[in-house]
Description:
Elements: E1 13-15, H1 19-22, H2 26-30, E2 33-38, H3 46-57, H4 64-67, E3 77-82, H5 87-96, E4 101-105, H6 106-114, E5 128-144, E6 159-161, H7 168-179, E7 188-190, H8 194-202, E8 208-213, H9 218-224, E9 229-231, H10 236-245, E10 250-254, E11 266-278, H11 283-293, H12 296-305, H13 327-335
Parallel strand pairs: 2-3, 2-4, 6-7, 6-8
Antiparallel strand pairs: 1-3, 4-11, 5-8, 5-9, 5-11, 10-11
Helix pairs in contact: 3-12, 11-13
Protein name: TRAP transporter solute receptor, TAXI family
Organism: Consotaella salsifontis
Pfam families: NMT1_3 (PF16868)
Amino acid sequence: MKHTRPLSLFGAIVAVAISGFAFSGPSEAQDMKFFRIATGGTAGTYFPIGGLIANAISNPPGSRACEEGGSCGAPGVVATAIASNGSVANVNAIGSGAVESGFSQSDVAYWAQTGTGVFEGKGKVEKLRAIANLYPESIHLIASKDSGITSVADLKGKRVSLDEPGSGTLVDARLILQAYGLDEKSVEPEYLKPNQAADRMRDGAMDAFFFVGGFPAGAIVELASSTPITVVPIDGEGAEKVIGEHQFFAKNTIPSGTYEGQQGDVQTLSVGAQWVTSADQPDDLIYEVTKALWNDNTRKLLDAGHSKGKSITKETALDGVAIPLHPGAERFYKEAGLTK
């Protein structure tokens, strides 16, 4: 397999169920297709979900895992979930051929494919194609209780992490600040992964940080268990402005008790988490990968493997998808009666 970039650019590789490879004969092994899924930081939601999906599509019919009642995936496919900087980095990697697929926020995917928004003047990732919409990603704004921050406006002059370059969170944090009449100069910005920002907050060196991902997020759960936090609402006129200007945002609620010490529901915004690939990927391969994503055994794995797994459904697979479907995925959805 040709690599156009060093794999180390995307951090640690999670080797997932390759039992189909282990129990195949020599001729079958030569036909194995390695399929990478670029996810996000290890403390976020993309990473564990990517591992589940990679596991699901890596056990071909006839493999031990499949025969013993596990997930029966795509024939001849061995998938790996790769930690990365997030949405922007992932779509760029797909565009360059460095990875076969990856996760992206719906807004980032659209802007990349059309060369608009944050990608304006930077060139289109024209061949970006969708496999599936996965689940809604909640925009978290987490503040230390001691900071006194209870609204977006309170961030002014505070130490705030906006996430690292290449992340969809950084893109959205900038849009939210702007909608509330702030910008990066209004705060003391830092650009850290959520687990790093949480460590800084635990040490008293960070007032707030943004994170976009499914709840409950591991880094925030861990932080809340030792440090009093506030889940800050993103609502009111600022939120309405964001929704009005950018069609990919929707109102969202982080339920009461999601994080230790959180009392009451918190209103915020969300974007869709989507699995995307390149038009250059073979139609038959993406068809089999899509089919494996939505089989009954994968359903069991998703339901049991992560709290957001139950939100990943075939019925919502096309929600908020604003870029073209890959022909292989489109073929599956037509057969399933979800598209005409």
